[in-house]
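Title: Request for sanity check on Protein YOP1 prediction

Description:
We are preparing a figure and want to confirm that the structure record we downloaded matches what your pipeline produces today. Could someone re-run it with the sequence below and paste the raw structure tokens into this thread? We only need the token string, no images.
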Amino acid sequence: MADFASSIQGQLKSFDSRFASNGFLQQLEARTKLPKSYLAAGAFAFYLILIFINVGGIGEILANIVGFVIPTYLSLIALRTKTSEDDTQLLTYWIVFSFLNVIEFWSKTILYMIPFYWFLKTIFVLYIALPQTGGASLIYRTFISPVADKYIVKAKKSDDIKDAVHGAASKASGSSIHN
């Protein structure tokens, strides 16, 4: 238990040092006399409590905000990197998130019977959104890929089809088409 507490304290200190130059958090820290990390942890806990109690159906919108905001921010960062590893992770996330939303749309009446569904969805979305967990890759490999592989045209076949279409178009128009 002491290791867990010291790990949490280390994370909080890391958060404080990472956001030391953030003007908004500095002002908030000065007004409340609480460290930035405690303010962020408190705000996150309050957010989760709002989702948990789901007053007026607010849990649905808050759960979906988590599902869009964090990955969108990470996607914007990934667009500026040279490697494709983060791109692959985020594309996998968006596929899993899309499947979740389609299933959710078609089963909404059943979902309202599940207690604390939006809270559980938020925890799940955080699990698949954060790259540290590898959740999106696991869900994709376990559930989506086996089904999708049956219906996706193999790369070789699609390249052959694309070449045949371009060839036919070239013959018909009498000119070459560029890829």
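Thanks, this matches our download. The chain is about 75% helix and 0% strand.
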